[in-house]
TrEMBL record:
Species of provenance: Patagioenas fasciata monilis
UniProt cross-references to InterPro entries, sorted A to Z: Anti_prolifrtn (IPR002087), BTG (IPR033332), BTG-like_sf (IPR036054)
SMART domains (alphabetical): btg1
Taxonomic superkingdom: Eukaryota
Protein name: Protein BTG2
Anti-proliferative protein domain mapped to chain residues: 42-62, 88-107
Record gene name: BTG2
Family annotation (PANTHER family): B-CELL TRANSLOCATION GENE (PTHR22978), PROTEIN BTG2 (PTHR22978:SF29)
Amino acid sequence: MVPEIAAAVGFVSNLLRTRGCVSEQQLQVFSGALREALAEHYKHHWFPEKPFKGSGYRCIRINHKMDPIICKAASQIGLSLPQLYQLLPSELTLWVDPYEVSYRIGEDGSICVLYEATATKPVSSYGMLTCKNQMMLGRTSPSKNYIMTVSS
């Protein structure tokens, strides 16, 4: 769970960093608070043997409504809800699953992989309708996958 959370935290922190309105010290505090909040939130909802189980619960979502976990971490550095709406995309979905972290900006954006690892045991996803796969059902063209590296 540690590398997946690190990828998600790094991605959200980099979104805040690109706007230039948050100091590096604030970003460090935000990253720590988000890391702790996600670890606590996922504690009983992390199933490496069934990575898609709990996917919807672990999904971080901004859809003209701010995700409460991001709000909680942002409050640690004094960012208000209106400031968060200015700094982050109005439409963002971030899937944090065992062995994979991916995101989509916009309702019709491509799904991009941030982090991918190989399961130590074979994992069967045949017939599984994950949160991410449900989003892709209505597509008329295939999405393109991009890999974004996250550094801290």
